[in-house]
Amino acid sequence: MAKIIFKRGDETFDINMPEGARVVHAAHKLKLPEIPADCRGQCQCGTCHVHVDPSWLDKINPMDLDSMELFLLERSKNYDEKYSRLSCEIYITEKLDGLTLNLVDDNIKK
Ligand code: FES
Questions:
Q1: Minimal CA–CA distance to 87: which of 54, 61, 55?
Q2: Domain for residue 110, yes or no?
Q3: Residue 63 sits in a domain of what CATH number?
Q4: What confidence tens digit (pLDDT) does each residue in 81-108 have?
Q5: Is residue 4 over pLDDT 90?
Q6: What pTM was estimated for this model as a whole?
Q7: Of the candidates 82, 45, 93, 71, which has an alpha carbon nearest to the alpha carbon of residue 102?
Q8: Which residue of 23, 35, 42, 68 sits with most ligand 1 atoms within 8 Å of its CB, as the best mutation to test the pocket?
Q9: Ligand 1 atom at minimum distance from 89 CA
């Protein structure tokens, strides 16, 4: 199990997730409105965008450049070259216990 932590400003939301799940599953269980994940984790919609906490960047699996991930991220409102990832493309392992992601408001209607 690994604890996955999401941050929205000063608020935090966390959940323990089994190895092999993906970060988008954690967001789904927590019902986070920032991550509707419209394509249900198929790397096709871009609505599961998060900013990875800097201290975790070198611990998560790298982006698969053959996937649609970068294409989708570059079209996201809050794209950040350094910190942006699609949460459906981050695989949870025991080593990621405490993984922290910052929520972005790409999908929040104002
Ligand atoms: S859930 Fe659609 S791209 Fe991640």
A1: 61
A2: no
A3: 3.10.20.30
A4: 999 999 999 999 999 999 999 999 998 8
A5: yes
A6: 0.96
A7: 82
A8: 42
A9: 4
